[in-house]
Design a protein that fits this description.
The protein has four helices and six strands, in the order αβαββαβββα. By secondary structure, the protein is α+β, with helices and mostly antiparallel strands. The chain is globular, with a radius of gyration of 14 Å. One of its GO terms (cellular component) is nucleoplasm.
Amino acid sequence: MNSGGGFGLALGFGLTPTAVIQVTNLSSAVTSEQMRTLFSFLGEIEELRLYPPDNAPLAFSSKVCYVKFRDPSSVGVAQHLTNTVFIDRALIVVPCAEGWYLMCFFLLF
């Protein structure tokens, strides 16, 4: 059984566990610092990207965040935050393939 939190091995697809999560349904008021504070309790964060970024000139109705943990086992723990109300919205936390968050950046902007 896959204890790393990624869905590939647990389902038998032969995929390696991911260390990245995608967090959606974020309030437009959320900041990178708030996201880092929330998820740093679950494991060491290697990289965090919030879209649109804190300094975006336009207002958006919601944001999306990608968090890359040093240890893939943090992904499984982070998924337990799904439906947790943060600021004014229920978070949706799912595993995300490595590198996918970089492709999403180019699609969004």
